[in-house]
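thought: fold this chain, then report.
action: predict
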Amino acid sequence: MGFSTHKLVVLAMLMLSVCGQSFAAKRPESVPATALATRFESVLYAKSDLVFAPGAYVGFSPLESSSLRQPFALLPAAIHSLGEWAAAEIIQGSEAVLVGAKDFRAPAGSEGLGQVRSQFCYIVILKNASGVQVRKYFSADEPPSGLAAGFPVWHWSAKLNEFGRDDPKPSSLYVTEVSSSYLLLSNDLGDLQDLAARLTSSNQESQPSSTLRDWELIGEHKFWGYRRYRHTGVLNPVAAGTSEVTPSAEALTFYLDFDNRVGVLRLLCSVTDEDAVAKMNARAVLPRLTRSAPGVWETRTRLSGNEESAERIFVIMSLFGFGIYL
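observation:
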């Protein structure tokens, strides 16, 4: 007895659903996103052309592009400090970039001018299985400074203005290449080693949905951010962008809808506590957050190419800990 048309349709839908889940699990950013989310407070993702493109990004104004690149601002300078040939090879060989950040602090010095400081790690997703062979960017007689999951780690210093205008000391940087698939660059050796271990673990999760709330919504976009709020041990709430955050706030997510040129910010918090929402809505620069589901508040901002649009993106990046003291 053959299948009815109805049964065939249901079977086809189930097969498509399974295939869709399989394809989602194979997204190259899934594993590094999960690894970063377990170690860092804020995680942001962008396609490489947005991170590395000179000048204004296609379809965005120079000010909008600058605000969107703020979380990734130290990476281009860091890889260029390895040499122009190295930078060209890494940029050309990259598919996308993720950054994890935590322990946000104000810039050094009495005036405190400059970018908010943090412990960070960039993960560059490489296009080709052969990788970039980071060893060749260092002199032949220079030994690695350690290992991360069995991969050599190289250490160097570069002037990135990481600490603010009043503190010109160079940044101490570590880099390793994991399985020819990822380039890890961090200002903390322990973070780099932990992430390398997570990326190579046999128990690694292919889907970060259990670690990053809203993953099924944000993960399909070319630019997204996730912040899991930390309510204890915050070094500087202003620098961290958490001065308005209440204990019931769980997470903040953001993604860019490139086709419609709209940025979507979502606050995930307790169903009964609206204090955090009220405090964020006091920021006149952002459209008001409104309830979109129980415990979920959302606002949308259109990227119109003007100064107001760029300021809104700047404020949103500050809420993820990537602000600037002016």
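thought: worth noting. Confidence is low (pLDDT under 50) at residues 5-25.
final: tokens above.
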